[in-house]
Amino acid sequence: MPIPGVYQKVAEGQQSQRKTGTVENPKKYKGQDFNNLRELCLNRRQLFEDDVFPASLYSIGEDLLSQDKLLSIKWKRPTEINKDPRFLVDGASIFDIMQGEIGDCWVLSAVGALTLHRRFLENVVPKDQEFTHKYAGIFHFRFWQYGEWVDVVVDDRLPFLNGRYLSVQPRSNNEFWPSLLEKAYAKLRGSYQNLHWGFISEALVDFTGGVQLDFNLSKPPPDLRDIVLAAARSGSLMGCTTPGEFHTGNMELQNGLVQGHAYTVTDGLQIEYNNKIEDIVRVWNPWGQGEWNGRWSDRSPQWDRVQPEIRRRLNVQRNDGEFWMSCPDFMQNFSQLNICNHMPTYLDFEDPQHVWECTPYYNQWVRGSTAGGCNTTEDVWKNPQYVITIPETQRRGYNVTVALMQSLINERKYNPRWLPIGFAFCKVYLSGTKNGVQQKFSRQQATDIKTTNLERAREVTKSFVAPPGTYVILPFTQNKGQESEFLLRIFIKTSQIAE
Known about the structure:
Elements: E1 27-28, H1 34-44, H2 57-60, H3 67-72, E2 74-76, H4 78-81, E3 97-98, H5 105-115, H6 118-124, E4 138-145, E5 148-155, E6 158-161, E7 164-165, E8 169-170, H7 177-189, H8 200-208, E9 211-216, H9 224-233, E10 237-241, E11 262-273, E12 276-284, H10 308-314, E13 322-326, H11 327-333, E14 336-341, E15 354-365, H12 377-380, E16 386-390, E17 400-406, H13 410-413, E18 421-428, E19 446-451, E20 459-464, E21 469-477, E22 484-497
Parallel strand pairs: 1-5
Antiparallel strand pairs: 2-6, 3-8, 4-5, 6-7, 9-14, 10-11, 10-14, 11-12, 12-13, 15-22, 16-21, 17-20, 17-22, 18-19, 18-21
């Protein structure tokens, strides 16, 4: 009997085999089909009005603004805002984006990273839409949700407060892809209010379907520099945050950075400076202005000791929100770094010759059966178990990444937001098992047990340097009997040589 749930599931312990929910054939969010709705509107010679996400306070959220401001919101279509509206002008760029009234820097930092990598951007922003061809007031975007791509339809009525964009403001007066993309994401999340603060990690995964790792910069791993440089080389998306809470205000510091604010990392390089090698990081502010003013900033004297051709290429002096920093300054002034890619190729700085493979598994914690919790060591071993084998050929560097995501239903079911979840990664004395086959192991069969901290987060991810052998992965909740569905993705570096 299939496991119940809002998404189609497979039997316990089996991996997903999907024909829908792909980039090429995404699920229709709320059953709305873009092509059918557009054709219907064109035939009726009317502009689309989305009754699922209407131009009303329901879509804004009752707690986003004061009552008088909420009542002052006006909705306008791009054709009412500009005489020559365009979806895209000369392609999508990070400099198309300027944050509006909503505190959604975490979303816009991820969107900014998205614009730097066409292979990701084209998955999210379909090409079949414009104001000059088959315009019917309807647009659509794709997002990754709990293992599936979904296609989200919106009408193009945008909220304005006192004549200004409530949402993201496009830098060009007639380019509307940023505002429409943000509206589609607000619809997916439930309201604009639900974009008011959040986590870069979630947005990066929603825009890519990839695997992301976050790094605490107050306690960075010793190989973080190598990871950042590998991430830049491999075309990974990167974001970062400054210390402070998102929802306590955005105070600009004397060094030009904003407290409790999310940024995009747009590049990482090593350059020759003062007869030595200097590591520098390029960062972008979603406000579209406001920059770091310390070492390696636009007008800092460090650029005078760099080769002229490198200085001309890198030292672009304009107040567009983008700036360079030294790695030590970056580590000192930012609290967290997030890196995301389809596969964890940003960990390949030691052994870049091999490729990664991902195997997803859907399952659930069931009270009295598989919901063991983690209160005791014995309880941990009562949770679902997944077996992997690391071959003798994989002896260098990171070779396993595990990502555990709980059901998205939990976001509104639990307070605050999510169940605390985690997993154990244990080496066991057994050989000859196939990856993913569920067998029951006991604590006595395990050595070298590594357990993640419990996190009240949508997804918990950790990477390992695993010597050859057999391992068991045990996902758990905090307490015995806590029920939820979950998606476990296991990324393993294979013996296959990358081309």
